[in-house]
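Shipment paperwork, digital attachment
Item: protein structure file
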Amino acid sequence: MKTRSLATVLLAATLPLAGCIKDFWQVTPVVCTTNCSTVSSGVFYILNSNAGQVEIAGYSIVSGTLTALTGSPYTLTTGPHAIAVAPNNSFLYVSTQSGIYLYAIGAGGALKLASTTPIFTDFAAYSMQVDATGSWLVEASGAGYLYAIPISPSTGLATGAVQQISLAGIAPRQLAISPDETNVFVALGGTGTEVIPFAALKANPLPNSVSAPIAVKSAGGAAVSVAVDPHNQILFIGETAGVSGTNNGVLRAFLYSSLGGTPAEVTGSPYASGGLTPVSILPAASGAYVYVANATVSNSSTGSIAEFALTVSGTAYSLTALSSTASTGVSPADLAEDSTGSVVLLVNSGGGPDLDVYSFDTTTPGKLDPALTAATGTDPVGALAIAATP
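Attachment content:
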């Protein structure tokens, strides 16, 4: 999906012009040194959020070297919340404290600001995604609404009236559009996870009202992340305080086919995430593995990535935790898989490093191997979200 962003940092810093380029700073290439001299990737974009570096940093990895895109980093006027790439790989959307801005993606992934005027002026667009048709930008707002913004697949611009529906809470953490374009899911903290029917081919894709959210597993818990596997089989929800024990975060798995009625959890769900706060879920494009980034782990100054194998037998599904766990920097915030399917990307909002890159182990299926680490600016940068081109 690549889509997915959680905004927890609100900044007051302002800069004179959206989209101007910082000519005075360029990333120092970082060379991969551990069995990864041939690791390469597609283009990806990172939101840096700390004052003085409120920007989009764009990269690709070429033969083990992190390489900045032409013109990167791209300065933002105000603190960012979320980022999303259109499925046709032509446009990138960035939500900020002053609204949602549109960038055109040019040769090699370089960005050009389409207009200094935001295409939509929601100041709290905490998570957003472009649907598969490229006709809707869907965003979950801290104002308590889900917005469906009509956009042109050819220009990226907003084209008509925005539709909205009230959410069950005002603390959206993350949203995901199902690959079959029939549902939008919003993790709403302690309120649970809302399931909202979505009809991309209609002029008004959202319903007039929705049913009650999927409640959190345990009292005091919070839904903090959400994702759907690429084959529309499983809805994944990351929750805090889902089980007893020190690291009580969980990954919940629901049968996608059950969501039109009473949501049914997969046998064995919830699964311990290995940490306290499972902030990002990445179902691999292969459909065989699921990765969960834990922002906090008990008795550790860094986070972790739990690794699961998804097994399908007829109509039965199950998850199995792999024996391996990937180490991360401080406060992991967002996961993405690059367009080539070669690497998994992770940004850490607390740094140490800002960016972790993992390759897929060639011996143990599903295992992630550290391949590259890098700063995405002059630390601290507060890298809070990442999006890879399709």
